[in-house]
Amino acid sequence: MIIDIHTHTYPTSDDSTLTPEELIAKAKRIGLDGVCITDHDRFWNPRDIHALARKHDYLVLPGCEVTTEEGHLLVYGLREYIFGMHKASYVRELVDDAGGAIVVAHPYRRFYRKQAHTSAAAYDEMLDRACDNKVFGITDAVEIFNGRGSDAENHFAGDIANRFGLSATGASDAHSLEQVGTYATQFQQPVRCLDDLITELKAGRFSPRALAARASSLVRA
Hints:
single chain; alpha/beta; TIM Barrel; five-stranded mixed sheet; 7 helices; 35% helix; disordered C terminus
């Protein structure tokens, strides 16, 4: 199964122009098996997610992109924002209590700078700085394919995951209709509900996937 596990919709994410209906329609049209809606620091009511899934006869799962001091975390299994979630360690405690999972989103941010990538040594210095972040010791996976990241940034994210031996995901991080269909995550086992998603994320039975839309755009570039 191929699922985009990192997307944003309006108005829950106020920086997105993508409605849930547009996201689902395009995801179905390009052959994705499901989507996770992971709006910024806000949680969907599970009943509303279930209603969307029923209305469109499609797998729609809830998550949240939580902003912490250590970076952005995609969390699956929590239902509400609780004071203190600006600390990644506290998010991990809450997620563990809920039996959920965490993926570090776009880990290249704040660390990889194209203009500073002047040599192998300069690159290694940026990588070492990024890997000093303790968040990689408390996550279940790392997003190494992000549809809004450059090839160089995604490569950097992949090097972080390799450094720690962490499983890797892919996602569009879509905030607009045209951004849907770049990257996703391919799961080895069926994912029928949120509990299945969490089980597979924690088991590491998945891999990042570049979709045809992304591949075509890279060829044209």
